[in-house]
Amino acid sequence: MKFQFCCSAILLLLLSSCATQSPKVINNIIRDTIVINKITEKYESVRIADLDKYKISTTNYPAIGKDERIRFLIFHYTALDNEKSMSVLTTQEVSAHYLIPDDFTDSIYLLVDESKRAWHAGMSYWKGINNINFSSIGIEIVNPGYYVGEITESNPNGWYFYGYPNHQIKKVAELAKNIIDRYQIDPINVLAHSDIAPQRKQDPGPKFPWKQLYEDYNIGAWYEDVHKNLYLSQFPYAERDSINFIQSVQNDLNTYGYEIQKTGVWDEQSKKVIMAFQYHFRPERCDGILDAETWAILQALILKYRN
Ligand SMILES: [Zn+2]
Q1: For residue 72, is pLDDT > 90?
Q2: Domain boundaries, position 243
Q3: What is the pLDDT of residues 101-117, one digit of tens each?
Q4: End-to-end Cα spacing for the chain
Q5: Do the beta carbons of residue 80 and residue 8 sit within 8 Å?
Q6: What's the pLDDT band for 44 if we cut at 50, 70, 90?
Q7: What is the pTM of this model?
Q8: Domain stops at, among 199, 217, 235
Q9: Which of 41, 99, 207, 225 has the fewest CB atoms within 10 Å, counting from its CB?
Q10: Ligand 1 center to residue 36 CA distance, Å?
């Protein structure tokens, strides 16, 4: 027997209560429409028209020409504590599909159904695609962000970022892995907010453990050391500030996926893109300067993923 009911009202109630009270655990993923599959007797999510006069057949003619709308997984930090993160993400326009608190519970919060667009990326771009909200799952991670301290040569903004505790990263990893597997998300499309909006965003920052996630969980993209070392010896120090070289670097960053103008000068927009690249792939020094190691890593990534 087909059993069908709408849960929009329940979802609304739950979310609005989260906004005013302390965060609540949502144990079940609540979808707009839930049905029980007659054959498997399992719950399934379907979103189809519900007509008065006509019957819509759902079983006999399934097409094979189809794929997932979700192509990207985007990580953020909230720069707020658990309670404020929940409040902002459920009462203001900004949102994300999932929120991962930094407490010691095993809770992860679903704020937006995966079949819907969450408003987490804003103006964004990756490899020819704009407005990444349309095609992404967004994960907000509770983390204070950064504090402003001493400006040094290696830290020209004086931004000192906070790390992520291991118990929280374990949650991030298991959730991310599940999403990546279900949607078959390409490793190069598992990204930071700063990757897709480098001119205005820093999150989840250089303390986000991209290398650990790649090595321990096979999440996202990472370069091969052997390739990096090969390119390190080829860095053209003498031409570093030539128009041709700068344009080639801007072109390479764009080839990998970043939005960057090919101006041929080390301008502010290039610096911000290089800094976003360093947050992700060379977090030990994020100064926005294209040094030999940054360049070698970029080449190694292009060799591995963009050839
Ligand atoms: Zn963000």
Answers
A1: yes
A2: 225-305
A3: 999 999 999 999 898 99
A4: 52
A5: no
A6: low
A7: 0.85
A8: 217
A9: 41
A10: 36
